[in-house]
Amino acid sequence: MGDGKLVGIVLVSHSAAVASSVAELAQGLSGAGASVPVAPAGGTESGDLGTSAELIAAAAASVDRGAGVAVLTDLGSAVLTVKALLAEGDELPENTRLVDAPFLEGAVAAVVTASTGADLDAVAAAASEAYGYRKV
Fold first, then answer.
1. Is the pLDDT score of 32 beyond 70?
2. What b-and-e string marks burial along 86-110, b requiring 16 or more CB atoms within 10 Å of the CB?
3. Cα Dmax for the chain
4. Is residue 9's pLDDT more than 70?
5. Is the sign of the CA dihedral 66, 130, 18, 36 positive or negative?
6. Is the Cβ–Cβ distance between 123 and 113 less than 8 Å?
7. Closest CA to 26 of 121, 109, 122, 128
8. What is the pLDDT of residue 31?
9. Which band of pLDDT confidence, cut at 50, 70 and 90, is reported for residue 15?
10. Residues 6+ positions from 28 with CB-CB distance below 8 Å
11. pLDDT value at position 33?
12. Model confidence, pTM
C-alpha cells in the first residue's frame, strides 16, 4: 500500500477464549512484519457462548486504520450476525468485508499478509486460499 495504513482483522467466534487465542496465535506467527491491528470478538457481553453485534462492531472500530477491515468468523450464526451488521450500512467501518475462510488458518494467512502492508483484496484472498491448505 505504501501509505502506512494496515488492514485490520476481526476474529468472530462463539467463544471469547477461542477468538482471543486465535488472535494471539495469528499475531505471534506473523513474524517481524508490521504490527497488524487484530481484535477478537468472541462470545456475548455477559461472557456466554454466542455472538454479539455490539462486540463485533466495537472490535471493527478498534482495528480500523483506513485500509479496510477483514472479518473472519467461526460458525454459521456468526456469519449471519456479521451479514446483518453489513446490511445495516452504518454499524461497521467503511470498507469492512466478511471473508469466506477457515477460521484458524485463514486468520493466520490474513494477519501475515496484512503485516506486509497488503491491501484488503490481497488479505481476503490469502485468507480464502487457506481452504486449500493440505495437511497430508
1. no
2. eeeeebbbeebbbbebbbbbbbbbb
3. 43
4. yes
5. negative
6. yes
7. 109
8. 78
9. very high
10. none
11. 59
12. 0.94
The amino acid at residue 44 is: T
Q: Hey, what's the cell of 9? A: 482483522
| H, E, C per residue of the chain | CCCCCCCEEEEEECCHHHHHHHHHHHHHHCCCCCCCCEEEEECCCCCCCCCCHHHHHHHHHHHCCCCCEEEEECCHHHHHHHHHHHHHCCCCCCCEEECCCCHHHHHHHHHHHHCCCCCHHHHHHHHHHHHHCCCC
How confident is the model over 82-98, as pLDDT tens digits?
A: 999 999 989 999 999 99
Three cell numbers written together for 114 = 496484512
